[in-house]
Amino acid sequence: MKVKSRLRGEVGEDVYASWFRGVEVEQVEGGIVHLTVATRFLRNWLRTHYYDSVLRQVRAEWPATERIEFSVRQPHFTIEQPKEQPRDARRSPALAASGLTPLPMPLRTGYGGFEGSPLDPRLTFSSFVVVGNTNKLSHAAAQQVANAFSSPQSPFNPLFLHGNVGLGKTHLLHAISWEIKHQKPETEVLYLTAERFMSGFVQALRARDALAFKEKLRNIDILLIDDMEFLQGPTIQQEFCHTLNSLIDGGRQVVVAADRAPTHLDKLDMRMRSRLGGGLVAEIKAMDYELRHEILVKRAKEACTDTNGLVVSDTVLAFLAERLTESGRELEGAVHRLRASYQLTDEPVSIAVAEQIVRDLMRGAEPRRVRIDDILRTVSKHYGVNRGDLLSGRRNRSIVRPRQIGMYLAKMLTSRSLPEIGRRFGNRDHTTVLHAIRKIEQLMSDDNQLREEIELLKRLLRD
What we know:
There is one protein chain. This protein has about 475 residues and is α/β, with parallel strands linked by helices. The chain has 4 domains: about 1-70, DnaA, N-terminal domain (GMP Synthetase, Chain A, domain 3, 2-Layer Sandwich), CATH 3.30.300; about 100-285, 3-Layer(aba) Sandwich (Rossmann fold), CATH 3.40.50; about 290-310 and about 320-360; about 370-460, Orthogonal Bundle (Chromosomal Replication Initiator Protein Dnaa, Chain: A), CATH 1.10.1750.10. Helices cover about 55% and strands about 10% of the residues. It has helices at about 1-10, 15-20, 40-50, 50-60, 95, 135-145, 170-185, 195-205, 210-220, 235-250, 270-275, 290-305, 315-325, 330-345, 350-355, 360-365, 370-385, 385-390, 395-415, 420-425, 430-445, 450-460; strands at about 25-30, 30-35, 65-70, 110, 115-120, 160, 190-195, 220-225, 255-260, 280-285. The strands form 3 sheets. The chain has a 5-stranded parallel sheet with strand order 7-8-9-6-10, sandwiched between helices. Strands 1-2-3 form a 3-stranded mixed sheet, with helices on one face. A hairpin with a 2-residue loop joins strand 1 and strand 2 (about 30-35). The longest helix is centred in the middle third of the chain and has 18 residues, at about 290-305. Residues about 75-110 have low confidence and may be disordered.
């Protein structure tokens, strides 16, 4: 069906498999396309979250469509035996590149006919970009769980990973799964998003086969749940809590990821929050400058190796590391953009080019509006110089360096142009401002103390 094929391309394989695989066209009549789904839950979910997307793809097939209607067909719940994959089909270019032996495991996890969410073979411990102060606890705990899985009792059960989006939670869940299957291929691994768990449980309830569903989950070796914050509904939460207790009490491993710590997941039942918090709770914190810079260096090195002639200077990387603070995906996206820009325009990658390319990313990275007056006041206080000296023509080293730092901060933290910054710093030419910025960037690359000093000033200005 062309509509389903288009939907798969738009929403991605994981979302498609969770919500659209069982959608069927019942009738097309009078400008209305009637679609049927297996459960009331799916009907309501598709109406609420994907109506516009489905309508758009349906109109591409039937242009006269005015609206779509979802209805629930007679419930059924069949268990299909997993099809044996040809040996060659199991091989993945990304997995081969990682140096791991191909695993006897399909890309989509499952157990006893229950289909889990897909595992990306690229997301392994060896491909985890950089381990730093902000993620080393979570990374070490994930490795410990994976490596100690063959022991009688895992040291961290459950393991609860939490942090904002784009910091590596899903990567670690996939890495644990791949490592365990690599060490013990016979292990029953089930990786699920919270949405996938809800969908499977609701279908089982509608099919009056909930008992079989529960038994399947409680007999696996390791259960990994992603996006726990989306688990909703008292009945579903109660069942998950029973499953969680059964697995842990039976010595089986549970790993959970969410955007907040268990105590802050207000929509979850108190007993579930207590049980999730009873193991190891490891936070993946926002990346600091050093970690962001290391990630950019690694990704830029890969891009330069694959792209003939591409050069990304450390000055540009330091600039991006300062301005892009949200997530690892943001950093990788910036490098992809720089690479694409060079390939399309053949223009060398400079700070000006980098700023123009990633301007929309940096817009969200500025916590609050910083004024040049704030910079002058903060720099004057920090270095013990008068504001008048910063704006004067004096060339003493004790004044020149704070003045240059002030100009650098004005460029990094405000949207002011170089000529405007020059005017605010004693009517100086824009070339003087540019020289000051480059000078500070050069010094920062060699002087850790200066870099930390400027980082402190930024924090003072943003707080």
